[in-house]
Design goal:
Elements: H1 25-36, E1 41-47, H2 51-59, E2 63-64, E3 79-85
Antiparallel strand pairs: 1-3, 2-3
Length: about 90
């Protein structure tokens, strides 16, 4: 893990479902908190079978990215890596 980074695990369980993923507040609340604490990028990984989770993440701005975590090669086909920038890219 890079210096200055943090790693947290968020697990959501239970029967509550959001009928309109783009209006769910979990993803936006987490990214808003990270942004207000000065983070530039938020990353996540999830199982490729969790279609609703992937849709929710994409609805709040996450996009596929290269693997950033070390997993055994045989697991990589089953993991979706995503990230979202939390602030605008700085001009050179």
């Amino acid at each position: 893990m890079k210096r200055g980074s943090r790693r947290y695990r968020l697990i959501i369980t239970g029967g509550r479902r959001c009928s309109q993923p783009s209006r769910c507040s979990v993803g936006t609340s987490c990214s808003d908190a990270a942004r207000s604490n000065g983070y530039a990028l938020m990353r996540l990984d999830t199982a490729n079978l969790l279609i609703e989770t992937i849709a929710l993440c994409r609805s709040v701005g996450f996009r596929d990215c290269p693997a950033y975590n070390e997993y055994p090669d045989e697991l990589l086909p089953y993991i979706v890596f995503m990230d979202v920038p939390l602030r605008a890219a700085e001009a050179d």
